[in-house]
């Protein structure tokens, strides 16, 4: 099946036209503004994605998703993962990812891997390497407990090297860019957050310059590994999986100070994770996080958070109830106002690979609600 966004399907429904205009990130042009959000699926036994994973991503490409960002894939570091079926991005897993790229490209799609290290979100004894201790900037877990020793500078360098190698491998495999996972309380975000970064050296969380140094060094190493034209996305968030009210920046001024080193290091696009895209980030403005980041950096941004659904994801998991479909008129209006550039869609695409096609063709009555049962299969 060919990609409908390449002109092989019926006309775009007028109400969603802004979602189906091309967008360029450097030399890469996306056919539309819809991004498949990274969603952990854990269907890669021993970290190796199989043919079922390739089919899963291909189905979304066939149905008009402009850019696919894979689930988090862990870099080549012994404490990067906390589950045996989370996909690796090194070793034998690279052959599986090569097949994923081939399938997505054959369907006319574009795809980035999300590169990930869980840091102190990993509990002691977790597979696939239960004998290895978790690592973090200060050895402090997301609840604020001291669990292990702080990372040494040697530890820091080894992780930076692993990110750079993964990025180089992504380019060699034919991926269209990469995303670095710097959100949700995982390793990079643990350096950003004062609660988990209590270092007193040049990586100290007491200043934005120190807190962002680790991420900036990763970005620069990745840029060196992939060259000037390979897109680098960075996913950021204020909230953590353990703390929905956490803030890295309390004001636009603080956010500007946080973003400046990351922008200077070479981020091409910021993926701004929020739980509900329509919520303002700061008082006195309706701009969401993606809107503020675009305004402050001048770089393109991706918004995300309950797109097309009436309940944010963690509440839907807790309740076990179906999350119902809602309209996207407010999203379209914000996109038309250039508040952000791209729209990441998670659960709606997880439950329905045809979501983008249905939106494009105005088949709104065919959209599916999300239920937690959708997590039990890879469709």
UniProtKB/TrEMBL annotation:
Gene3D superfamilies: Aldolase class I
One Pfam family, short name: Oxidored_FMN
Domain NADH:flavin oxidoreductase/NADH oxidase N-terminal: 19-363
InterPro entries: Aldolase_TIM, OxRdtase_FMN_N, Oye-like
Protein name: 2,4-dienoyl-CoA reductase-like NADH-dependent reductase (Old Yellow Enzyme family)
Species whose genome carries this gene: Paenibacillus lactis
């Amino acid at each position: 099946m060919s990609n409908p966004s390449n002109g092989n399907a019926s006309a775009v429904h007028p109400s969603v036209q802004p979602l189906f205009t091309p967008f360029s990130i450097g030399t890469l042009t996306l056919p539309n503004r819809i991004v498949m959000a990274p969603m952990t699926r854990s269907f890669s036994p021993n970290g190796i994605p199989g043919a079922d994973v390739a089919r899963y991503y291909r189905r979304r490409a066939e149905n008009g998703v402009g850019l696919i960002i894979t689930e988090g894939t862990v870099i080549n570091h012994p404490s990067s993962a906390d589950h045996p079926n989370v996909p690796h991005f090194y070793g034998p897993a690279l052959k599986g990812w090569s097949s994923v790229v081939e399938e997505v490209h054959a369907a006319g799609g574009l795809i980035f891997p999300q590169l990930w290290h869980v840091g102190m979100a990993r509990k002691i004894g977790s597979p696939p390497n239960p004998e290895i201790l978790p690592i973090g900037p200060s050895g402090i877990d997301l609840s604020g407990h001291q669990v292990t020793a702080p990372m040494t500078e040697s530890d820091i360098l080894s992780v930076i090297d692993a990110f750079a190698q993964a990025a180089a491998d992504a380019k060699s495999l034919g991926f269209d860019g990469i995303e670095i996972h710097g959100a949700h309380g995982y390793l990079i975000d643990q350096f950003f957050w004062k609660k988990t970064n209590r270092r007193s050296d040049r990586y100290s969380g007491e200043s934005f310059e120190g807190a962002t140094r680790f991420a900036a060094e990763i970005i620069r190493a990745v840029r060196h590994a992939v060259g000037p034209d390979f897109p680098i996305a960075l996913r950021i968030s204020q909230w953590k999986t353990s703390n929905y009210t956490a803030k890295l920046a309390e004001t636009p001024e603080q956010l500007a100070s946080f973003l400046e080193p990351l922008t200077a290091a070479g981020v091409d696009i910021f993926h701004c994770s929020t739980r509900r895209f329509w919520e303002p980030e700061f008082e006195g403005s309706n701009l969401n996080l993606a809107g503020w980041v675009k305004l402050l950096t001048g770089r393109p941004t991706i918004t995300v958070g309950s797109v097309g659904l009436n309940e944010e994801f963690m509440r839907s998991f807790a309740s076990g109830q179906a999350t119902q479909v809602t309209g996207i008129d407010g999203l379209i209006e914000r996109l038309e106002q250039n508040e952000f550039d791209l729209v990441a869609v998670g659960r709606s695409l997880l439950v329905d690979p045809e979501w983008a096609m249905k939106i494009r063709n105005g088949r709104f009555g065919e959209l599916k609600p999300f239920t937690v049962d959708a997590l039990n299969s890879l469709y």
